[in-house]
């Protein structure tokens, strides 16, 4: 069970690192919120509609290297059962 868990985490990190290498900006799209139905926030403004995420330069290589190390660790765990 642990072997599969660590392998899944490592593969996910490698995929995320490859995506960060290929894409400059991630744009999260959302539907227009209804002002009457939007939840109250601390400052009284409705939540933001869209969100842009720019990964830093170090993110792709860090995700790829950490994912690779975790995959290698998962492959060295002894199989039990």
Describe this entry's structure for a reader.
There is one protein chain. The chain has helices at residues 2-22, 59-76; strands at 26-28, 51-53. The chain has a domain at 1-26 and 53-81. It has 2 helices and 2 strands. The chain is mainly alpha-helical and 81 residues long. Helix 1 (2-22) packs antiparallel against helix 2. A two-stranded antiparallel sheet has the order 1-2. The model has no long low-confidence stretch (mean pLDDT 83).
- Give the overall shape, derived from the CA principal axes: elongated
What structural class do you assign from the helix and strand content? mainly alpha
Helical fraction equals: 40-55%
Mean pLDDT: 83
Q: Which key terms come to mind for this protein?
A:
81 residues, mainly alpha
Short summary of the structure?
The protein is mainly α.
Write the layout of secondary structure elements.
Blueprint: H1 2-22, E1 26-28, E2 51-53, H2 59-76
Antiparallel strand pairs: 1-2
Helix pairs in contact: 1-2
